């Protein structure tokens, strides 16, 4: 790991983290929404080039890892899959923000937060 990776976090921890199911296609998004009819889910929308988004993601992952609850978490890389992010905004009637955590139950967004307001408490 380089000096700058140590300072700025290097690669996203989400690339290795088993907490996440990845949304990389409209089919993945459809499966996530279907899953919300079985259990509450959360989608973390992340900009991989944004330092603030990386910081919020790392803090959120630490919070989840130290929690007794293990919610169903989905991860969307906004830069790689912007069209899917736009579809989420349109289909779920939520304004796009980044970073953003959407909590979905029965196919509807029941909680949405951005930046420093993102917390594992939203999912419980």
Number of domains: 1
Largest β sheet strand count, sense and barrel closure? 5 strands, mixed
**CATH architecture grouping:** 3-Layer(aba) Sandwich
Strands in their spatial order, largest beta sheet: 1-3-2-4-5
Oligomeric assembly:
single chain
Which ranges are low-confidence, i.e. pLDDT below 50, for 5 or more consecutive residues?
1-15
Query: What level of helicity do the residues show?
Result: 25-40%
* Number of DSSP helical runs: 4
Can you describe what's shown?
This is Bacillithiol system redox-active protein YtxJ. InterPro entries: BrxC (IPR022551). It comes from Chryseobacterium salviniae. The structure is a single chain. With 124 residues, the chain is of the alpha/beta class. The chain has a single domain, classed as Glutaredoxin (3-Layer(aba) Sandwich). 33% of the residues lie in helices and 23% in strands. It has 4 helices and 5 strands, in the order αβαβαβαββ.
Topology at a glance:
Blueprint: H1 3-8, E1 20-22, H2 26-35, E2 41-46, H3 51-65, E3 72-77, H4 82-91, E4 100-105, E5 108-114
Pfam family, one: BrxC
InterPro entries: BrxC (IPR022551)
Protein name: Bacillithiol system redox-active protein YtxJ
What keywords describe this structure?
single chain, 124 residues, five-stranded mixed beta sheet, 23% strand
Compact overview of the structure:
This is Bacillithiol system redox-active protein YtxJ. InterPro entries: BrxC. Helices cover 33% and strands 23% of the residues.
């Amino acid at each position: 790991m380089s000096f700058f990776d140590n300072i700025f976090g290097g690669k996203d921890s989400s690339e290795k983290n088993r907490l996440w199911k990845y949304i990389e296609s409209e089919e993945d998004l459809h499966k996530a929404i279907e899953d919300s009819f079985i259990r509450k889910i959360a989608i973390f929308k992340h900009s991989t080039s944004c330092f603030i988004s990386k910081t919020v993601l790392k803090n959120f992952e630490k919070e989840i890892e130290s929690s007794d609850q293990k919610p169903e978490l989905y991860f969307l890389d906004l830069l790689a899959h912007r069209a899917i992010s736009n579809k989420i905004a349109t289909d779920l009637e939520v304004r796009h923000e980044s970073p953003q955590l959407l909590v979905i139950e029965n196919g509807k967004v029941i909680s949405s937060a951005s930046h420093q307001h993102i917390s594992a408490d939203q999912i419980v």
